[in-house]
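QA checklist item 7 of 12: single-chain prediction sanity check.
[x] sequence parsed
[x] length recorded as 73
[x] structure emitted
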Amino acid sequence: MKNFKIVIEKHPDGYVAYPIGIVGAVIGQGDTYDEALSDIKSALACYIEIFGQEIIEDTPSIEVFIAEAGVAV
């Protein structure tokens, strides 16, 4: 058993979840927070089973920060 830090974003049409500290892209989604969390846990288990534990970064994230940045568009 390994614990992962999971970011869960609330959007107008549901929730999107993704882990911190994984090589590659793993996304979960759901109509509720709990559905998105369940989906990302399932997706992570499948991803690790297929690609192996080497996709887990050796140095775990101890702190995760969210920041805003202005970008000219």
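[x] summary fact logged: DSSP finds one helix and three strands in the chain.
[ ] second reviewer sign-off
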